[in-house]
Design a protein that fits this description.
Layout lengths: L1 E6 L3 E6 L3 E6 L3 E5 L6 E5 L8 H14 L5 E6 L3 E5 L5 E6 L5 E4 L4 E5 L2 E7 L11 E7 L5 E6 L4 E4 L7 E3 L4 E6 L7 E4 L15 E5 L6 E4 L14
Antiparallel strand pairs: 1-2, 2-7, 3-6, 3-10, 4-7, 5-6, 8-13, 9-12, 9-16, 10-13, 11-12, 14-19, 15-18, 16-19, 17-18
């Protein structure tokens, strides 16, 4: 069994009791500690984390076409150990998925996940408007040990309307991930384009994601924007 915890906000600590499998971002391993000789190893995931070969091939093709591809490595543990993972001093956020719970996350923000998470790519229909195109990566809880670790460029904030039932509006270029306990919960894409956009006088916030009161959701946002979005103007 694997458990996740954060160390100093920037590092993921994974504790294994043995005979476990972990999927992590390639190159993210920074150190390990175990009794006796080293009892874990890593190998590159050539196609994908799916157990079915056909699904793995199709998944690999889809991720490459949609820009949601991420180099993964597979960690295999044969005894008790503690291993550590990090990426470019980014903040690490841990989430444990309930059975059937879904987290939608930008592929570049995935640090690690356990074997009890089903990894897939989903179309959300935002087309040319988002940095990542038409798709987002999804992880679905399929067991009792469905841990996910994601990365944030800077200390993140969490917005949630699960209690308040408020409307949530988020800049897509700052989203790390969003989580729903009721399966997929895709945002509505709103566009704010006027004549000012075409003469270079726009606010810089020309499109956004919106979840209404009928869509209970929790969204993690990082204090750093990716380069993306609408770039229209006349010099």
């Amino acid at each position: 069994m694997l458990t996740f915890e954060t160390i100093n906000e920037l590092t993921l600590k994974v504790t294994s009791t043995g005979n476990d499998v972990l999927f992590t971002k390639a190159g993210s391993f920074v150190g390990g500690d175990n009794p006796g000789g080293k009892n874990y190893k890593f190998e590159k995931v050539l196609l994908g984390p799916q157990n079915n070969a056909v699904q793995a091939v199709l998944g690999q093709l889809l991720r490459r076409v949609t820009g949601e591809n991420i180099p993964l490595m597979k960690g295999m543990f044969q005894g008790p150990s503690e291993t550590y993972y990090a990426s470019h001093s980014q903040h690490v956020i841990i989430y444990k998925l309930a059975m059937g719970e879904v987290i939608s996350v930008e592929s570049e923000n995935i640090l690690a996940f356990t074997q009890d998470c089903k990894y897939d790519v989903r179309f959300i229909g935002v087309g040319v408007l988002s940095q990542k195109g038409l798709c987002t990566s999804t992880l679905t809880g399929t067991g009792n040990n469905a841990y996910v670790a994601v990365l944030s460029s800077g200390n993140p904030i969490v917005l949630s309307n699960t209690v308040s039932k408020n409307t949530l509006v988020v800049d897509p270029d700052t989203i790390v991930c969003w989580m729903s306990q009721s399966g997929y919960c895709d945002p509505q894409v709103k566009i704010d384009v006027s004549w000012k956009t075409f003469i270079g006088q726009a606010s810089g916030e020309s499109y956004f994601f919106e979840w209404g009161s009928h869509q209970p959701i929790s969204v993690i946002v990082q204090p750093s924007e990716r380069s993306g979005g609408i770039r229209l103007g006349i010099d």
